[in-house]
Amino acid sequence: MLHEGQKNFNAAVPYHPTMPSLAQHANPPSGSPNATRARRLNSFRSFAAAWASFVLLVIVPPSLALAQPTPTTPTPTAALAAAASDPAARRTDREAAASELISRVSAEPAARQAVASLLASLDPREPGAEAVLSALARVPDAPEGLWRSIAMFALSAPPAQRPLVLGAVASFRTPDAALLLFRFTSEEEAPEVREAAFAGLTRLTGHAEFGTDPDQWSRWLIINSRLPERQWHAELIRGLSQQIALSARQARDATRRLVAVYRQLWIRTPVAERSKFLADLLRDDIDDLRSLAVELTRQELADSNALEPVVAETAISLLSTPRPAARIDGASLVNLLAPADGGPAVLEALRKEGDPRVAEALLQAAIRWPTPEARESALRWLESGGRAAPVAADLLWSLHRAGVMASGPDRARILQALRFMPPEAINGGGCRLLVALGDEVDRRRVTSFLQSDRVPLRLSAANALISRPDSLSQVLSGASQDPVLVEAAIRGVRTHIPNADGWLALEPLIAVGGDAVRDAQAQLAAGMTLADRLRVVQSLASDPERIDSLLSITPLQQARPAADAAAEQWSLFADLVCELGSARIALGHFPQAAEALALIPDEHVTERASNLLATSQILQGEFESAEPAPSAVWLSALDRCADESLIPQIAQWLYDNRRDSLTPEQAERIDALREVLAKGETSEPAPEQPPAPDDAPVGAPPAGSDGG
Q: Could you say which of 13, 170, 547, 632 would form a disulfide bridge with 705 (CB–CB 3.0 to 4.6 Å)?
């Protein structure tokens, strides 16, 4: 019984204007069910026979329906035809020969005749016909010259062999092929034939959403089968594109699930078997599984787990595979594993490689083995100017550092390639080569990269320029406005000027570099000479907090001169300690100031150190310890005192113990202060004293005093 979609379709689209439509054979006079079914089947068989006769006599010229005589001298085409029809040959070999024959059909009439000869038996079970049909079923777009032979075959093939023939029909991207496939979706056909017909329609048009619904296929064919050729192909492209996108999504989903399964298998794999597991994954043709193997290998190495040699051997074997993605993974793993025989394998693969993507990975791996054999390949890829050129520059820089770069023509080739390379293609290796091998013009060009809007290029330029002391000033200048360059500037200072000059050169970078610059300055200070430290500290006279952080107790203890050191060294050390003590007094850290001043041995204590120690003692209320200090020191401590309860005590001590030695002005000041304190007005500030000179050290007595 014909389905409704078949009836509607046949009524709307007869296969050929000279042929009776299938609908004309589908509606015999009513009668008994069995008789009706028999009449319909007989009518369909009659239609098929009439169609086959039409194809044989009208569509297919006799010259193509008959096998051609075999040439006296075998030709390549004849040899392929013989191989395709050889019953003793393997099926895969017969199909390979048939595929080659089909590929020649459009260009060689002899090939078309040979294929027609193989199909002349009209029996799909014949070795030659079966090979051609199987090969055609895999062709994305079958040659039009074979359509008539295949159409004849589809009409004459027995039902058991018809699915194979319909698979070949689906390779012809024409309305006639679609109409022929649709006619075999009749319910009178065997289930496997109908299934093959629907599958062929889906493959031909890409409309998998229609499934096995004849009504949807009927409507689509009624609308599209009469379109002009250009519009028909546009419709096919649209449907096939949708099918490709759907298949791609399904493949990605399936691959994700497969990767998840392998992850679970990896977790359950004993440690002793993991190397074999990784090697098997690396050999897989699915890119995502191979990438999983690379990821798991990295994980094992990160966990310090040893891998057996089979993993490295498999990685090396990937370097010679025809798949670029596999070669990239192989190069990445060889770079990671660094096997003993990895260097020669990488260099040999690099010598043969023509894909820039793969060359990029191989060049990166070759950096591990900077040998003279890598030089020519690196130069070739640098001169190519493509995506592999930057990594080639990195490899050439490694060769230069290893001392295996030729001094003459090779350097000229490097500079010529880099000079013509646009800035966006130059990386760290390129900048370093320009600075190291180039002239002043090249270095100025690299310096200009410090103003680039591309962060990687600015970093590359800075890292290259700091290799030269005469270029460090440009990096420091750029870093004062660009936080990206601060780290490079710090490294340049540590390399070339690890002294007070370097410390002071970093000072303008604090505004953009913050703590990183301060930490770098502290590290520089810890390794400086005493004279350099003193110079740095004296530049910070107005910032006691930074002095305190730079001259902490531990670094000063480490910098303490030996007992038999020259007096000059002890004098510098005492000055440094005094700067620290003065800073701590200014910060109100009196015990810590005394602790620092105690680092100076008695025989090297200076007058300033004694006065500062006394000041810290007075401000802690330790009057007896500070009693020997001059009156000026006591008066200075009184000026510094922020403890209101201690002010009257210091004033009273001065009145009781030093009144006779004070100048009239000092005595008058003490008397006035005691009078105010006696009235309970302790909140009144002490009389102001003339400020100390700007260059006076912290803790020095006021101007005009007689204190040390």
A: 632
